[in-house]
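Hi U.,

Before I forget, here's the chain from the pilot set. I'm dumping it here mostly so it's searchable later in email.
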Amino acid sequence: MHVPLLIQDFLKRAVYHYPNKTAVIDGDRRITYREIQKRINRLANALQQQGITKGDRIAILSPNRLEMFEVFYAAFYLGALIVPLNTRLVPAEYEYIVNHSGAKVLLVDAELAQQVEPIAEKLSQVETFVTLSVPGHSTPGGWIDYNAFTESASELAVHTALEETDPTMILYTSGTTGRPKGVIQTHRSTYINAVNTIIHVKANDDDVLLHTLPMFHVNGWGTPFSFTGMGATHVMIRKIQSSYILELVKNEGVTVACMAPTVLNMILNDPDAKNLNMKQNMRVVIAGSAPPPSFVRSVEKELGWTFIQVYGMTEVSPFLTVSHMKEEISREGDEDRIHRLKAKAGISMLNMEVRVVNEDGEDVTPNGVETGEIICRSNSVMEGYWLQPEETAKAIVNGWYHTGDMGTIDEDGYIDIVDRKKDIIISGGENISSIEIEGALYEHPAVLEAAIISIPHEKWGEVPHAVCVLQPDAETSEEEIIAFCRERMAHFKCPKSVQFVPELPKTASGKIQKVVLREPFWIEVGRRVN
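Structure:
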């Protein structure tokens, strides 16, 4: 008998085995698994009363909080798709994503309502606006407060016939076309990734997970599912402050956190970090291009936390590799080598086949030197991009997803990322499309040609840098270019510096050679991504 792999089964298990255990801590609120199941049922019924059925889309704009956790599961019970929105975008970007996804309901944290109100009338398919209450912030006229929306709804469970191939979410990520692309994940892809997380991060029922990673980022790397399935406790945090993180780690007994390298670096440099006097063991999961071995050593020696490096992307829901130390390597006791390997993307996870191939599609020599593109295939790879079949066909070729990242693989199977084939900049954990910024620059009357490249940055890993050729006799300044971009897109996407040159290096076919532009900035770093 075929039993489909459904995401809500993780919650079902937790409610069955841990009904009285605290499921979510959100400020002063502490909700057990039994209580959260009732709240989710009410929300699912309330959404159903608004006409939400299988296949409909529900968008949510919110920092990490109890209600966001509930919206995920309520949507899954209905067979609806979640569209989590990045909290750092500007109104025009929300307009595009919400309309492109066709969301019928939009839930917005009251503190962020001002980001949606200016474009609310342009959200043509949204029928219901719901606010998640925040002290000191009111509900806009015509919108419904979350508590009022759910309080009279039934606590009875909602049942919808589902298959594991049914989609669960559309996750918008910056693309090389300049417009965000909606990654479609299914119950199966999300489920498989959650199981991978349980295995490789060793999630258990004694874990207390601190949600330092925004849940709009691949649903916090799937942690609302993996750690729920194991009966762990979730601790929500609205804003990232190192002092508050350390306070929660100590007071709530946090045992695991997933975060961007910039957040961990912030904690490492907080004077209070060395005086935590923690009783529990703590592990921290970091994604993106791996940090230097010295950074790994500092985390493990100074903080006493176990460092776990993973590598992934939204299209793979999201993990491909993990910096697992093979038993024979650990047994050798060479700490320098262990830290070097922990500072790599790692080896492929279970249920994930990863290769590094040259331009002919052949595996590169596993010597840690020869470079190729990282490709993978797995049940956790996306179904495709929402309403963009051409982009899907470019990304998935003969069953293999092409990451666009360039790397090496050594004789032990450890992958190291050294360059990025796509024009995506990952700054402080945020994906930034260089083509989107270039599109804005070309609107400036003084700009003739422009290229955006990534340059290393001590805090953010890498940031956008603009290289511009001006129109004949035109004049402008670095400050004016940056301000021009800031009027047109989220500030984190804008170039942090601008360079004016007489011409851009190009190939014989006229293609701009960004590798030539990047080289002077990265030559001392030893890699092309950070």
